[in-house]
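Minutes, structural biology subgroup

Action item carried over from last meeting: produce the structure token record for 3-oxoacyl-ACP synthase (Arenibacter troitsensis). EB confirmed the sequence was re-checked against the source entry. Recorded below for completeness.
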Amino acid sequence: MKAQHLKIKEYCKISNNRVLLNDQLLYEDQGSDFTTFIKLAYKKMDTNYPKFFKMDDLSKLGFLASDILLKPMTQDAEITKNIALVFSNSASSLQTDRKHQESIVDKENYFPSPAVFVYTLPNICLGEISIKHRLYSENSFFIFNHFNAKYLHDYASSLIESEKADEVLCGWINCDVEDYEAFLYLVSKKGSIEHNKEEIIKLYTTK
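Output recorded by EB:
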């Protein structure tokens, strides 16, 4: 199939206690730890999903960034959007894995929590997003040593060109205690930013 001329419609970044949509600062709170910041950002963004507070930190981070980008497109419950999800990071679900390990390592105080165990796979985040926005298309979560713009570019392009998705929400969400960052962008046939490796790296690295 002939390659299509694809664009980046919008992007969202969450890091250093700041939430940005494209180049617009939506929220900032430099005085809080991650746990407090992400809850305050959730309220500021008017994100309506009570299960958010039961998620692990990685899912909260990815869910909030995704909701900012997808909410305007999926508010109409009668319209099903064919939007694929392609996420990546370097730590998988390590932070939650540690919590689960702590709950089972002491045989004298063996008390594993199902609420923690369910988030010991990074793609659980994709499930939460899909449920909230009624997405039934393909989703994948890849683990790389570092942000891999080329792979994300090629994979997203392939999904759209093969007509497996109309648009692709992809990017990077990493979370390990206070070391966290989310960078998600929406690949589409419409938009103002060229969808190529160079532009993706530029958006990711621009603070």
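Discussion: The radius of gyration is 17 Å.
Next step: EB to file the record with the rest of the batch.
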